[in-house]
Amino acid sequence: MANYHDSFSKTKAELRPEQLKKIVDYSSLPFDSTEHVEKLTNIVGQKRARSVMNFGLHVNKPGYNLYVAGIEGVGKTSFVNTVVHDFSEKEATLFDWCYVNNFEDEYKPKVLRLPVGLGKQLQKSMEDLLKDLQVDIPTAFNEENRLKNRSSIIRKYKDQVDQVYKRTNEIAAENGFLLKQSDSTVATIPMGEDGNPISEEAYKKLTEEQRAAIESNSVKLQEIILEATESILRFEQDLKKSLAGFDHQTAITTIDFHIDEVKKIYKDCPEVIHYIKAVRKDLKNNFQIFLSTPTTKEDKQLGRLFNDENQALKKYTINVLVDHSETTGMPVISADNPTFYNLMGKVEYENRMGVMSTDFTKIKPGYLHNANGGYLLIQAKDIFSKSQAWEGLKRALLIHKLQIENIGEHASVIATASVNPDPIQLDVKVIIIGNMDIYQALYHHDEDFRKLFKIRVDFDVEMKYNQENIAGLVSFIHTHGKKYGLRHFDSSAVAKIIEYSSRVAGDQYKLSTRFNLQVELLYEADAWAGIMGDDLVTAKHIEKAIQEKRYRSNLYEEKIQASIDEGSILIDTTGEKIGQVNGLAVYDLGQYHFGKPSRITATTFMGKKGFVNIERESQMSGNTHNKGVYILGGYLGQKFAQKYPLVLTAHIAFEQSYGGVDGDSASSTELYAILSSLAEIPIHQGLAVTGSVNQNGEIQPIGGVNEKIEGFYNVCKNKGLTGKQGVLIPHQNVKNLMLNDEVIESVRDGQFHIYKVRTIEEGIEILTGIPAGHPNEQGDYDRETVYGKAATKLRMFMEFAREQER
């Protein structure tokens, strides 16, 4: 058997050390440390996102809200904040929004849309008006001339009453009676000839005729007294009307003076003038509130308890809901906690004598009120975790109005007096920041979402490896470090960070835009520099931070490695086996990923079942892996069933796999195992394989190539490097290699090998050391090739099956 390190593998497939990583020469960087780097003035990368975002912000039409989609950590929120704040600096048409009392129906507060700054000004004007009236109305009522005039009206009334009393007394005297008034009645007392009241004894001595005359005169006198009393009541009513009119005129004069002063200020604002007129009308009917003062101790206590004066005057105050007097440009509001009420606004309540009551002054704004005329930024994960918030937001955007409502009112068991304020016109652009999964779910299952969010801004996880983006990354390091008080990074440290960025991107020609991972590296390297007592962050601190971060996360990896070292997990790294290949898998632990080999075995025998995926039969296989297995049948049919049918059953298994298998990156590995089993040619166990395959036998790229190579290298290192071990990878993945220095040095020393493979034929030759074989004109393979030996066995299966059928 030919050695698998023949000239084919060495000259055509094996990669050189310099191909395994794009190394940044720190001496080529135009600075000694980030201290001398310019500040970041623009967003790094994301040209597509910038272009789409800019377009979306320029479209001022209904439905053109934005959804910014991307994985966590690519800087979506920082990007959106920066772009939107820059865009918001242009001139904006904003309004102050106020709620005021509806004097016709207090449960339906009115809204005022005012020019910027007028909200607080009107609030102050109304406060001053009330203060002035509280002073000037009582003053006017106590003015000396007014009091004289008022006394004159009262005196006229008294004169009239006195005349009635005098005339009534005269008539009583003429008829021999004396009138005596008690609290509620007037008694008629008969008089004797001496002018004194007749005593009871004297009255009894009178004749019947005399007593009858007195009774008759008493009845007539009672009628006269009744007429007099009615006259006095009429005089009292006239007095009250006269005094009320007099007081009303005094109040009107004072009120009109101050109201006119306010109207002059707002003469160019019709909404305010209309409101002021309503205030004037109500004040004229209720001016007594400026005159009433508690007279008893109990009244004073009740007044303090319920704050009667403030309650009475509160209906004339202004509830400034949104004040833009200090807003520059368009408002940009970040919804940190987008509950329904925080978004839509709410009405607060207070318990008054067991009843939950409220009024227009207790209307509070939400994020949408404050963002009206500008931009509202919302995290998707926040709004969709809050009950009713999304529905409320959609409704507001669809009708372009903000209606404050209490969604819990109907469920309350407490008596509640609520308000229904006027809606506010809404003009806002909402920007939701989230991942693509949430976007897809909303787009396919929420018709309103499609209407409202017509612009999707896609965030890439990578950017081109060019001087512009490298300069941007370096400026980011400088700017972020300065902002958060980090040490400066020298050029060797920056070079390592650039390499780390390419590693995260998984591409020698790309840099990662997952700035959260790079920021973590900055923080941790700075911390290690401090621990080591260094004033400058260098390459050793970056390397230390990467090593320690891996150490903090790789406990599970070490457990698996220990199981391999101890022989609990069976992995061979030396020798040769038929139908057995080392596949490679990536374990995803969230923030940490690592690769480890897995033994894949195949057995082939005569039968008609075709390919039996043991993982699928045991329900431990995903759809993508199942598809990969089915492709194997297509390849073998193309290569070996052009002249006779396949009479084959092949069982494929991932040995010691208990957690499920998915993905097609092992499909080429499975095919190698089948070919080895059919041809009965052993495969070198010092090699591991990754890569998917199509029906034409072309090797296709996979993910996690660096983790897979490093994982198998660690296994080989622990078991002992022989100089014959290595990994086969798809040729397309060469550009994805950013291996660690230990693996590269091992390759440079000839202790480990990495091969790029384009086809199954190339791969099987490296694995077995025997040519794969090519069909001649008759479609037959050389018997000494891998495919020739496989074809021979398959022909034997077919001939035996035909004999059995005869």
In short:
The chain has 806 residues and is α/β, with parallel strands linked by helices.
Explained architecture:
It is a single chain. The chain has a seven-stranded mixed β-sheet with strand order 22-23-21-20-25-28-29, with helices on both faces. Strands 7-12-15-1-16 form a five-stranded parallel β-sheet. It is an alpha/beta fold and 806 residues long. Among the domains are: 139-246, no CATH class; 559-777, Ribosomal Protein S5, domain 2 (2-Layer Sandwich). Helices cover 48% and strands 15% of the residues.
Topology:
Blueprint lengths: L6 H7 L33 H12 L7 E4 L6 H13 L6 E6 L9 E6 L2 H24 L2 H31 L2 E5 L4 E5 L9 H6 L2 H58 L4 H16 L11 H10 L1 H7 L4 E4 L9 E4 L4 H5 L1 E2 L2 E3 L2 E3 L5 E2 L2 H5 L3 E5 H4 L5 H11 L1 E2 L21 E2 L3 E6 L1 H10 L1 H6 L2 E4 L3 E3 L2 H17 L7 H15 L4 E3 L2 H17 L7 H15 L1 H12 L9 E2 L2 E9 L4 E13 L4 E4 H4 L5 H18 L8 E6 L12 H13 L3 E2 L2 E3 L2 E2 L5 E2 L4 H15 L5 E6 L10 H8 L3 E6 L2 H9 L17 H20 L1
Parallel strand pairs: 1-15, 1-16, 7-12, 12-15, 20-25, 22-23, 25-28, 28-29
Antiparallel strand pairs: 2-3, 2-6, 4-5, 8-11, 9-10, 13-14, 17-18, 19-24, 20-21, 21-23, 26-27
